TrEMBL record, chain B:
One Pfam family, short name: P-II
Lineage: Bacteria, Bacillati, Actinomycetota, Actinomycetes, Propionibacteriales
Any GO MF annotation of the entry: enzyme regulator activity
Record-given protein name: Nitrogen regulatory protein P-II
GO terms under cellular component: cytosol
Amino acid sequence: MDGYYAFMLVATALVLMMTVPALALFYGGMSRSKSVLNMMMMSYVAAAIVGILYVAVGWSMGFGGDGTFFANPFDLFWLDGVDTSGYIGVFFQLTFAVITVALISGAVADRMKFAAWVVFVPLWALLCYFPMAHMVFSCTDDSLICGRIGAQDYAGGTAVHINAGVAGLVLAVLIGKRLGFGKEPMRPHNLTLTMLGAGLLWFGWYGFNVGSIVFTGATDEENVAQFFSETGRTFGNTTLATMAAILGWLVVEKVLHKKATSLGAASGIVAGLVAITPAAGAVDLSGAVAIGLIAGAVCAWAVGLKYKLGYDDSLDVVGVHLVGGVIGTVLIGLFSTSEGAGGVDGLFYGGGLGSLGDQALGALVAIVFSGVVTTVIALAIKFTIGLRLDEDGEVAGIDVAAHGESAYDIHTGGGGAGSSGILAPKTAPLSQSEGARA
Amino acid sequence: MKLVTAVIKPHKWEDVREALETFGVTGMTVSEVSGYGRQKGHTEVYRGAEYDIALVPKIRIEIVVDDGEANDVVDIVVKTAQTGRIGDGKVWISPVETVVRVRTGDRDSAAL
């Protein structure tokens, strides 16, 4: 299995790349120019904090033993008792924890106090993600979603996407709308970054989905055979579902809003990848195309819900990750084939309603768990250090307010100053002299 | 002397400049501006959210000329900048009291 080990080294690096920089670019391009650095920093700092916490207790809570919600955090504390030959398995899972937490940041763009994010990140990883990873990925006998309910989730439709999507919804509601939401235009400031980020996410997702293979064979030979057949299936499904979701999103957009947009294509990529994540091993190519089309089409519609329901999920963590995650997780109940990794036939493959029920219950448990835990954490922060940046800082832009930086040394107000920058405020000498005084 | 101010479509700028130079206009001030007239901007859609983009990018040209040349300059701008579609812009003439060349202190016609 040398090939598998070499592949996992690459897969792990690919999944880390999904957060740093792919997700940061995807989100950063969609934010306004005055908050792009903060948007990207939320991903970068989440990676740093969650990664170290994962080595401390995350692996132990997730994969250190049995339990309904989580395993003993201290059995394998700081990987004590894990041989270095097993590290790559740990670090692969670590990258999943990192991106799940980072995904949430899109819901609170422009307005979450940076200190509040730095406190939220480890608390949420500890109390929400590590347990969910145990319930879904460890698949021990007692683990709630995999072991007890028996829901299939190949790479994280529940633990990653539903989990992050619900957390995004809770945070968006508790932190409130951006100033001017629904009145001022809040256009994405650089869609080329978003297109690039979406493409890099797609690339990285091969590590995410294909790397999530769990061997079931009794012998090395059986495992090698499984490696060949299953990686082909997951790679193929990941590819086709994403392509179908681009088309699904664009068609719905064209019908509803008369234009097929680049942001729609980029969003379709992510919606398709999200939906095929739980189903990558369970379905065949036709199932993957169906799931991708449905996810692209439904998410394209779902991102409009926030305006009707009145919450400011700024970059559509709910509309893409929660909705896409639920679609992928539940549709396994329809499109799952017993030839796939789970060995279960869904409704359309002659398997009856059993799988559909398991999948729906698994999704529901994930929604409730994440909803309750995130609410407790967010309220605790709200009533201690506060969640939200002050109004002046939000108006000026969180990049300057929180980090003392601006992303671009150009002024795009469209006034008569042109692009020469001659009329731009001269901030540099001032800040230097301030620095010298300090 | 007169100040001729023209607000035109950006892609017409090179044509207008060339025509004015051929006519004999020796200098002008040009700026990138934004605004709107009857055409009222356009609509953009991002994930289903429609935004009215009120301001349209334009080029503003300012030329100071002798009284007798003002109408010719206006005609040249109108002829070269015209596409016949909405949003072609405006040209107007205003009186100028005095002009001084900074380098030499020359005044009025000598300063043009």
